[in-house]
Amino acid sequence: DYAAAQSGLRALVEQYDWGERASEILVNVYESTQQYNELAAVLETRLNNWSDDIDLSDTNLRLARTLETLERPAEALERYQEALAYDELNPDASESVRRLMEQEERWSEVCDLLRKELDTASREEATPLRMELASILWSQCDDPEGAMEIYKEVLWSDADRSQASEQLTLLAKAHPFLRDAVVDVLTPVYQQDGNWALLVSLLVDTLPEDESVQFRGETFKQVAEIYQGHLDDIEKALEYYIRAIRTDIDLNYLLPEIDRLASQCGKFTGQEELLSDLSDSALPRDKRAELLMRMGELSSGPLGNSEEGERNFLAVLELDPEHLAAL
Predict the structure, then answer these.
(1) pTM of the entire structure?
(2) Other CB atoms within 10 Å distance of the CB of residue 205
(3) Positive or negative CA dihedral for 203, 209, 212, 214?
(4) Model pLDDT, residue 77
(5) For residue 220, which of 198, 196, 247, 194 has the smallest C-alpha distance?
(6) In degrees rounded to 5, what are phi and psi of residue 13?
(7) What is the C-alpha radius of gyration for the chain, rounded to an integer number of angstroms?
(8) Residue 30's closest CA among 3, 1, 61?
(9) Which of 173, 280, 289, 323 shows its CA 20 to 30 Å from the CA of 118?
């Protein structure tokens, strides 16, 4: 009967002349009948007794899969690694080693495996491997700088730069100390590709709140210039010039440009509020007088509020009784 046949084959396994062939038959029998404990045992016997006569990589791979089925992942991992030792390019073994190492959170070794795969990967295969490696370095190995370098490799080597540039932007948001390096990398890329909206998003969205007022002010000024010169969006340019001066009062030399843009697009509210705030600031008397004069001209002119204009002109004279224009 069937059981007796299996018993006979097991007996033959112990014989030198027939053992290898008998064990091969048993492997097929145990696989087809899902007798996984017996299958694991006979595969180990084949590896121990007939290593010169069998495909060591394939046999280790089959044993590893069997051990996984038996929920013995640590032993399975060892066998997958053995399979790789005999066939370094075996994709099934490589993927399984990586998967089990990820399950055990052996991230440093996972990174080593990915780097090894990259050594032999084609151009098309390299990009997803690099993206995965960078993601693990960032999220699991606390190495955002290493991740940044890998994303930069993708940026320069892949025709589609969108994935790498998006991840670099997220990296700069999460780690402000990398922000300048990321901006230095992505700015010429966006400029070359004409992706001005993405450049604006990069500059604004990654700007740390605790940066100096001078740096933040210059950044808003740079964004205003992009809106004005490349995106043809006068209203946005006006908004960011105003933000620049609100952030760093030393940029008040931009006021004539704000006047011009406000007149061009007919938007005076932001300009009026800015002038009002600046006139109450700690600027020197002559600067405050100049601002109040601008407010008076704005109120009595485009805004059509002559009473408010007169009040501003009187405020100018309080600061400078001999101010000819206010007189």
Answers:
(1) 0.71
(2) 11
(3) positive
(4) 94
(5) 247
(6) -55, -35
(7) 36
(8) 3
(9) 173
